[in-house]
Sequence to fold (198 residues):
Amino acid sequence: NDSDFMVVNSEFTISRRGTKMAGKQYTFRAKPERLSIYHEMGVDLALLANNHVYDYGKDAFLDMLDHFKEYKIPYIGAGHNNSEAQKPYYIILNGYKIAFLNATRAEKYIMTPEATDTNPGVFRCYDTTNLINVIKKAKEESDYVITIVHFGTEFSHNLEKVQIDSSHSYIDAGSDMVLGHHAHVLQGVEIYNNKPII
Fold:
């Protein structure tokens, strides 16, 4: 609550509906009223590009988006279509305009749907083209771009080559910081072209 801006990786769906996705070892769902905890924590922005927001199917996913709006908690990385899922979140902090972006490439067996022109889902970046284009546009409109990606091998301290290469490409495209999560363990820090990759 004392920080200027708090971001959380919200890695579960929020609904009373839906059925567990078949074939998933772990599935996560929360009751809508649990979002009040985010208010207690001082959450300013929820990241939804991950491998658990669709654990209970489309209806639960759409409920989740509605509940975030009901609780007035902005979100990025997922949406009713790809335009919403890919949309950056802009905030003015200490006189600087900062853009937050969120995408995922976390599944070995892809089960979480990618948002399309007509279907809900997450912002995927297995192909980095769309994310790079969003970074370039966000950089034109802001002082700083923070790109947050759900990727890496779970419980491994070793980086995948694609994490390094794609993070470099995101910095080259205009991102001022790349933050990664998904591994559940620390995987290191790099300073590339004077920009942090964490």
